[in-house]
Amino acid sequence: MAHLHAAGAGPGLTAESPAVRSADGLVAPQDQQEERTSGRHREQPKIMLDAVSRHIIEQLQQDGRRSYAAIGRAVGLSEAAVRQRVQRLIDVGVMQIVAVTDPMSLGFRRQTMIGIRCNSDLHRIADVLAGMEAIDYVVITAGSFDLLIEVVCEDDDQLLEILGEVRSLPGVTMTETFVYLKLRKQTYHWGTR
Questions:
Q1: Are residues 113 and 84 in the same domain?
Q2: pLDDT 10s digits, 83-106
């Protein structure tokens, strides 16, 4: 395994193939960089992080409001360097910083997971669903359903409207709705590798 060192990044970055590296602790294998720029539809390239970037993410998972200065003290970087790394992690899609709410406490009385079966291009259907404002989660899956979506809405009338839109999409052959009765756990601390 090759060990790559980014200037000023502290501990090395590890990649299994020749890599494109940057001073902000992010690295993508060279072959994935080439696939991304060739225009072919591929899986999103795997971004590998150095230990400092992983530690920054862990700090933000503990408290998304933690200051860059406090994070810098914890990881051994200046406030400016932490700010640059955080912005880069956001820009490449590794993370986002958001406030997570309980929708029911905000007046959204109906949350559901909807399983969808399709008989045509899953990527096209997933893209259409992802463009719908009321749908906050879209995944292509293996198993009984081709797609799973999560819907948060104000009431059953809005849910019926959304279901009608989903069922009318060309290629959608079946849906099954799983209504959430009570939110018992919702966490986002799976950490980094």
A1: no
A2: 999 999 999 888 888 877 777 677
